[in-house]
Amino acid sequence: MIPRSCLAACLALVAASVLPARAQPPERLPAFSWDRVPQYMHIRKAKKFTDAEIAYLASFPLVTFEKTTGFQAFQSTEDGTLAAARAVKKINPSARILYYRNVIVHYGTYKANDGIEKIPDAFLTGSEGKTQLIRKKMRAYDLSNSEVRDWWVGHAKEVCSDPAIDGLFLDGVVKVLRPGFLEKDIGKDKKAAVRAGYETMMRETREALGPDKILLANVLRAGLPDSSSVELKRFDGSYIEGFEHGTTPEKRNENVAKGIEAFQKAAREGSLIAFTAGLSGLNDEEGDMNPQGTDEIRKGLEENDKYNKRFTYLLALFLVCAEEHSYFLAHDGYRSDTSKVWMKRPPELERPLGAPKGPAVRDGFTYTREFAHAKVRVDIENEAGEIEWIEPENSGDTPLQDNNATAPQSERPAGQHLPST
Q: Can you give the residue range of the structural domain that contains 399?
């Protein structure tokens, strides 16, 4: 009999070998330039975006329209997302638009939900018959059910077949992968079956969407086993949240250092990275609603909050990690109607940056890196960042090419600048 430990190791090697090779034809990836900080946008609005908001969105090379986008105006997230995507593409055809789907959490604003309601045992049931297993208010897909997987993949294929959609944003992956998540409610065996079903569903999703669509997953996380190796290879890249509280609060510095290392490794190996982080403080009142830190839940900015120091720290963190096809977003939540920084572009993001002169240099918990027009320093122990901007010698002669839109910077709608606070 083969020992259980050896069998597990063999199965892991087989799984890695059968993962599809990650092909990234340049023509399907977002536009990229080091001229300025490359940016990402991740947003949702239940109502219709205004013309000014669409023009602003069209200035980003990579956009994800989150759950609930347009569902009040168009009666479903699918139709709301397609309407917004088509409007952005009309202004900037080169923008890459991603459609949001959660791999395990069920949200109620999709017209496709009519299909899953007809599938027997489509949702996980916990102890004492509990069904609201996610944050005590949402249902979770039973991915061990092949009918659920077929429904999920078929829906993703249908929406992503529209020319305005360039790929799929896959959320909730960390919930499936995180050891212990949901185990108290459904047991270890069922959690293992859900994990196996997820792996099957991801292979089927890539096959269904084909090689020309982007798969960007919420997967890269400090403290998550294999997040920067086997799991990341299933996708074209990773969205990053929860960067600063990966494993335990007592080891925050080590957590952030591990996150930096994972980001750097993935980016150097060619992964598309969408780095996001909140400008406000973490919500400490989450308690047992978010026991393993799988969600980055923040308090949200108040009108007079000062956040320039936080913004500089986040931008410096990004810059010591970024490689080609890495994109940055510092946010105040993803709802346009509550965010205090929606449609406001920080002046630092308009400055010339230039290509990096080499990788970051680490000294304890301090990192430094130089770009053609910036010197960056990050002290993660004190949560401080410094960026010295260097004006290019020809700054008065020829304007730099804008990396976020086809129109010159002076002509594109950049929104208001963040106030100096």
A: 31-411
Give me the CATH number covering residue 398: 3.20.20
* Alpha-carbon span 411 to 399, nearest angstrom: 13
Closest C-alpha among 195, 198, 239, 193 to residue 216: 239
Query: What's the pLDDT at 284?
Result: 59
Number of structural domains found in the chain: 1
Other CB atoms within a 10 A radius of the CB of residue 343 amount to 15
Q: With respect to residue 108, please indicate whether it lies within any of the assigned structural domains.
A: yes
11 belongs to a structural domain: no
> What is the spatial distance between Cα 100 and Cα 66, in angstroms, rounded to a whole number?
5
Q: Quick one: pLDDT band at residue 253, thresholds 50, 70, 90? A: confident
**Mean pLDDT along residues 198-209:** 97
Return the structure tokens found at 377: 């320093």
Provide CB contacts within 8 A for 338, sequence distance 6+: 300, 332
What contacts 165, CB < 8 A, 6 or more positions away? 81, 82, 85, 97, 98, 99, 159, 213
For the whole prediction, is pTM greater than 0.90? Answer: no
Per-residue pLDDT tens for 297-352?
656 677 767 889 999 999 999 999 999 999 999 999 999 999 999 999 999 999 99
232 domain-assigned: yes
Q: Quote the pLDDT of residue 149.
A: 98
Does residue 248 sit within a domain?
yes
